[in-house]
Amino acid sequence: MSVDVGKIAEEIRVRFRAGEAKLPLLPEAVIQVRRIVQDESQGAADIARALGNDMTFSATVLRIANSARFKSGSFEIRSLPMAIQRLGGRRTLQLMVAISAKIHMQVKNKALQKILQQTSAHSLSVAVAAQHLATLIQSAEPEEAFLAGMLHDIGVQAVVCAVPDLLIPLEHADKLKVIQRLHREMGGRLLNHWDMPDVFETIASHHGIESDDRPRDKLIDFIDAADFLVQHNGVKVLFDAIGDVDIQHYPPIQRLGATEVHLAAVEIELETSIGDMQATIG
Fold it and tell me: Which domain holds residue 111?
């Protein structure tokens, strides 16, 4: 049966405007940590206390602080306050937001669960590739590139978790078409709703699009270049497939000035590190 994807997408927008569909809320632990980070009189110990009742966040923050990707010292950290000191309060907060998309935005339907799982896995691969590329080229903060990669496709979770009842009856291909049409718009809305820095909202809204009004922030080029390399490495994606484009002629890669040496190094990083990062994020 033919499905009018545009009509369904518009129905979802109408639901949001009418307040019948809600953007996912941040977990209470993240809200508490945000208040602490904004209060200069509080620090790592206060953040640790706020996280103490959420075992998932506590364990994940400890694992991330001890991971090779974020470890800045030679010794293993076993206490939450020390982990937060190592990461920094603001970075801890941003990581918690990124992790929220994976562990707190879920649905019961198995077909939609699979879409969320595949999207999370892809976003993590883009995050790893973007961070390594930023480390090599040094025109963006590597940790910020990692977080941008984790959050760039969060609009998928926003759509799936807000209106699962509209998506469940659709054939798989039609589910993907509806999400494809809305995920940038809803990703930008969600990150604005969560009061994330503007750059993350911009990336969620504009990644993967070459146009005259494309924002000029370098971080978008890192995300698009990383996404290209992930797909070039053989990963099949549900959304924003880039297709058959010569690697050296892909505009974001050209704008970054990435060389064949840079690109080969990122591909090696993906092969060697993605398993460890999947285990770290949980």
Answer: 105-282
Q: How many Å apart are CA 104 and CA 181, to the nearest integer?
A: 23
Q: Are residue 84 and residue 112 in the same domain, yes or no?
A: no
Residue 263's identity, in one-letter code, is L
The structure tokens listed for 251 are 């505009």
**Structure confidence at residue 247 (pLDDT):** 86
The CATH number of residue 167's host domain is 1.10.3210.10
- CB-CB neighbours of 153 under 10 Å: 29
CA distance 90 to 159: 27
- pLDDT digit string (tens) for 29-77? 888 888 898 887 888 889 998 888 888 888 888 888 888 777 666 678 8
Average per-residue pLDDT for the chain: 88
Helical residues (DSSP H) of the chain, grouped into ranges:
5-18, 28-38, 44-51, 55-65, 80-87, 89-103, 110-137, 142-151, 154-162, 164-167, 172-193, 198-206, 218-232, 251-256, 260-281
In the numeric block, which tokens belong to residue 124?
A: 């993590």
C-beta separation of 55 from 128 below 8 A? no
Do residues 203 and 261 both lie within one domain? Answer: yes
CA distances from 73 to 26, 77, 87, 249, 276 (A): 31, 9, 11, 39, 18
**Model pTM?**
0.87
The string of pLDDT tens digits covering residues 151-171 is 999 999 999 999 999 999 999
Is residue 241 classed as helix, strand or coil in its secondary structure? coil
